[in-house]
Amino acid sequence: LEIKLKVCSVDLLSSRTGQNRKEHHTDLYHGDELIIRRGQTFQMEMELNRPYDPDTDKILLELKTGPLPLVSKGTHIIIPLVDHLEDGRWEAKITDQSDNKIKLSVNSPANAVVGLYGFTVTSRHVKNETANTHNPDKNIVILFNPWCEEDTVFLDDEEQRKEYVLNDTGRIYYGTEKQIGARTWNFGQFHEGILEACFFILEKSDMPPSGRRDPINVVRVISAMINIQDDFGVLVGNWSGNYSDGVSPNAWTSSIEILRKYHSTGGEPVKYGQCWVFSAVTTTVLRCLGIPTRSVTNFQSAHDTDVSLTTDVYYDENMEPIDELNSDSVWNFHVWNDCWMARPDLPPGYGGWQAVDSTPQETSQGTFRCGPASLIAIRSGHVYLKHDVPFVFAEVNSDKIHWQRNLDGTFSQVHIEKKAVGHCISTKAVGSDDREDITYLYKHPEGSEEERIAVETASRYGSKPEVYSAPIAEDVCVEVKMDGEGPRIGSDAQLSIVVKNMSSQPRRATLHSQAAIMYYTGVLKNAIKKDQILVELLPNEGLSIEWVLPYQQYQDQLVDQAALMMTLSGRVTETKQVLANQMTFRLRTPDLKLTPLGEAVVGKEMSAKITFTNPLPRTLKGVLFRVEGLGLQKGHEVVVGDVGGHSTVTLTEHFIPTQPGTRKLVASLDCKQLSQVHGVADIVVLEK
Asked: What angle do CA 380, 386, 389 make, to 5 degrees?
């Protein structure tokens, strides 16, 4: 008689010092729950009432999160047992079996819903429908994973991950730009009760649990939930100077007490906060959930109330300020957050740091929240890209425009201050207590032509588009062209910038060009080349300018798909026309070379040589070749191992053709650091 398979116990191997939590960088969290990051394998062990028989026994793992778990929403997960683990999906594999014990490796996709999951195991016989469910009464916590390339929050720098995800203390800057003060803050994201408080905040928001897979969504919700303005959030803002029925915003030094108090009272807003407290608590919550985050201070921070994207000061006929119109303000300093993520919802090039502001100032879509706003969009004045770019743009780079009332009641501009706003934007440096100035990430240098272009581009989308004079004429065009199939990886990249003057007058312009490395997710990694080109055009003249990016400048910088973005901006001197162009280009990868050896006859062994030269100056790790040829060779993998920088590997494949005619032997290279490498050989096979 068969004994029904039952699970007696499950060990999630969740101790802080064990392999799971160490590998997942969650060993700092308090407590002994299993805390893992998505997109990464973890282990568990089970004890059964008898040895497991793969032919007749079935085991399923189930995870559920939220009040109404649904498979379709990714909140009810059924994990099958498989023979081979593949990336990008939920599955489990038995890695070890002795007597009644089995050890499992479990994979999760990099877009799994983040949160607290209940866990059960179901076992049954293949022929028997009745199942035994074992509920070990243990939870599994799943967090965002900045260490995983496929996760939207992937951050490709270990020192930065240590700072922006794992550092539980920091510095927050305040004061004035001439007298910058710094205070140390305990973020305490690993402290007892903080992870629970963060999940409590997510539950209290009205976001469905399925929304928790998307970090854009999560930071938007957290930005609204940190302030009380419309959703019983964590903190009450108070700028009155009277804090007698609570704690003065200046008195806090840590997020821990605030978050634990909010959680323990069932969501009673904590009194009181001002901008640095809102920002610090946001840093704690987002770092706790696994999103790289930092607190950022902007000195001379504008507050644009009428979305004109300018900070406006109104005077009457006698140049006396008109108080009731002067609602735009400039704060001495204002603190918000940057968090790091790709932006698949925007055109390529806008990923990376995103500004998020939890201080209640203006409503966004009816709620007091702000962001995520791409820093690259802010810097370029691309204020039409969501979320809330106009507001942050105005905070750091609006012009202060002084208007005087005319006798007929209309207003004229009398003065523009172009450098009044957005100075010394500061955050704690990576790995030290120094202040890092990151103004350059938010705006081009003050007074530079690129900065003026950004301000004028932005204001065209504001409520007063006519503030800056429109160009007299738009008769010059610029485009970027590429020869043939484009530049190859490992050699200098050449492009042509083509400028045409379509007018009957001469035209002059200065073009600013910048090349930046880009992840395929559209996140710009860093600028590697900047130039200025002076262009002088005769009437109706067209010019082609050679632009070269030397190999030395990009060799150590490339990432995954080896893409770069070239940005051009400039202005025509005579007409004030703005010139702008962006082009994404890729560095092409080498081919695999396949050379047939010996004569090709049905039933007779022959071989082919596969040659690959690593075009990069670094070692490629864990290289595999996949080889297949219909009628020649069945598909299989060849493990090559590591291939040193610029070195060549040659392999010989032996096979016996089974079909006559023209056959194709196809090979491709499988390696994380270099994609899109493949080759083919045509082999004419003769009859015996």
From this structure: 45
Confirm whether 275 is a catalytic residue.
yes
Tokens representing residue 79 in the block: 């994990």
Pair type for strands 235-237 and 270-273: parallel
Confidence of residue 366 (pLDDT cuts 50, 70, 90): low
334 is catalytic: yes
Catalytic residue among 24, 25, 303, 334: 334
Catalytic residue among 198, 275, 370, 424: 275
CATH architecture of 7-143: Sandwich (2.60)
Cβ neighbors of 428 (< 8 A, separation 6 or more) are 163, 170, 171, 294, 295, 434, 435, 436
Q: Does the domain formed by 476-586 have CATH 3.10.100.10?
A: no
Binding site for Ca(2+), residues?
Answer: 397, 399, 446, 451
For residue 521, pLDDT over 80 is answered with: no
DSSP sequence for 525-550: EEEEEEEEEEEEE-TT-EEEEEEEE-
Catalytic residue selected from 151, 214, 231, 357:
357
Q: Is 303 a catalytic residue?
A: no
pLDDT of residue 675: 65
pLDDT tens across 4-20, in order?
Answer: 899 999 999 999 999 99
596, 665 in Cβ contact below 8 A? yes
- Predicted TM-score (pTM) of the model is 0.78
